[in-house]
Amino acid sequence: MDDLSEDLELLPTTRRALRRRLAVAQSEGRAPSVVAAVVRDGEVVWEGSRTCVEGHGPDGDVQYRIGSISKTFTAVLVLRLRDEGLLTLADRLEQHLPGTGAGEVTIAQLLSHTGGLAAETPGPWWERTPGDTRPELADVLGAEPFKHRPGRRFHYSNPGYTLLGSLVEALRGKPWEEVLRAEVLEPLGLSRTSGRPQAPHAGGWAVHPWADVMMPEPLEDLGLMAPAGQLWSTARDLARFADFLLRGDARVLGAESVREMRTSAAPPEPGADLGYGLGVQLAADGARRLVGHSGSLPGFVAGLWLSEADDVAAVVLANCTSGVPASTVAADLVGIVAEAEPRIPEPWRPFLEADQVALELCGPWYWGTSAQVVRLKADGSLELAPVGGAGRGARFRAEADGSWTGLSGYYAGETLRAVRREDGSVSHLDLASFVFTREPYDAEAPVPGGVDPQGWRGIG
User: Contact, 275 vs 264, CB < 8 A?
Assistant: First the structure.
């Protein structure tokens, strides 16, 4: 029997490729320092760094500012409120946080940047000015908070996540950072993630675009804007957080809720990647689907990406205002591992007990003349897929009443039911009004529009 635990160790050639990619990023990006980590199968399997100061390279425990990756942490807090029944994503903000002037926007729209709010605050650049210059939400939103009608389009909004942070504070009765520490950071063991820098931490630098000189950037406390970009973290902590976004953790958010976060909730802008989920960005690297977030504040850039199909995630942090494409480098690190050492699939195992009701649904079905197949998966779900691969497919979760709820694709949220004859045998499947029969246009099934009584025939 193979010992799969041995496969967590990366091959020397893979480790060298990772080191080289990071070295190129630091050299070409002219960064004072850059640090990275890779997670595979739930374990940190590689850490690396490069620095301009000989002998003082950072490790995975050195803090950097992570900018908008903070939004993903805020989104986790909001999903926790939803899972506890304190709100629904369809609720208008006004129901829980009245008097903002943006009360018509829904919680889901704020999470997915489809609320139509402005991208930035009015007044001076909020990332380089003290938070106490914006003491109230009115100072964050301004007199005209909306740039688009809510729900019409994706428009990235930093003030939108300030509203979400204030929502968390209103429903928990505690400061955003205190709630974050108690409900997310401590349960996940992210002891090196904080609202303010804790030694050892990197200093933020601006590197001159046309000369090899640099100057320090200001490190401002963002005040009300903290939920949009305040946090400091380490490559090691963010690697663990990336794995949480892939698997969930019952102490924080379950697997279904983090899967919901990773599901597209907003279409992409023209020419952009795959769009935005609930607090996470969606991107494509060739055929590989990535989920994560980028981040930047003066003096720092950050990137976090995970590939669910490959069970690989990568984090890249650098202490320069620009120059290092941290998100691109993180995606490259994921690709290096995934392509050099493709995931070894779990062993196939049969059911200990097969559900006979589900079993009788397995096999070929026909939607009109389109051949489909239903398979019963080891996790108890049903999978509907077109024969030949072209067409609509989905997974379905069993419900207590004997129906099935779509989890993905066109049929997400739709109900699948097995319609039975008087003798208890299955006549057909009903899926969102579509009738699936055991034979193409089965004359004994209630096919909408009926079936020609002369049946199938040729020309002539």
Answer: yes
CB-hemisphere CA count at 13 Å for 328?
A: 9
For residue 160, the model assigns a pLDDT of 97
Give this prediction's pTM.
0.88
Cβ-based neighbours of 403, under 8 Å, separated by 6 or more: 415, 416, 417
CB atoms within 10 A of CB 37: 28
Q: What is the pLDDT of residue 323?
A: 95
Cβ-proximal residues to 149 (8 Å cutoff; 6+ apart), any chain: 116
The rounded distance, in Å, linking the Cα atoms of 15 and 301 is: 23
Nearest-angstrom CA–CA distance, 332 and 312: 11
- The residues near 441 (Cβ < 8 Å, ≥ 6 apart) are 366, 368, 369, 447, 451
CB-count burial class (<10 Å; 0-12, 13-18, 19+) for 9 = middle
**Whether 103 contacts 109, CB under 8 Å:** no
What pLDDT is stored for residue 273 in this prediction?
63
Residue type, 384: L
Pairing of strands 275-276, 33-40: unpaired
Cα–Cα dist 45/273, whole Å: 28
Low-confidence ranges of the chain (pLDDT < 50): 1-6
Question: Partners of 146 in the beta sheet?
Answer: 117
Beta strands across the sheet bearing 300-307? 43-51, 33-40, 312-318, 300-307, 288-297, 281-285, 275-276
Cα separation, 320 vs 33, whole angstroms: 8
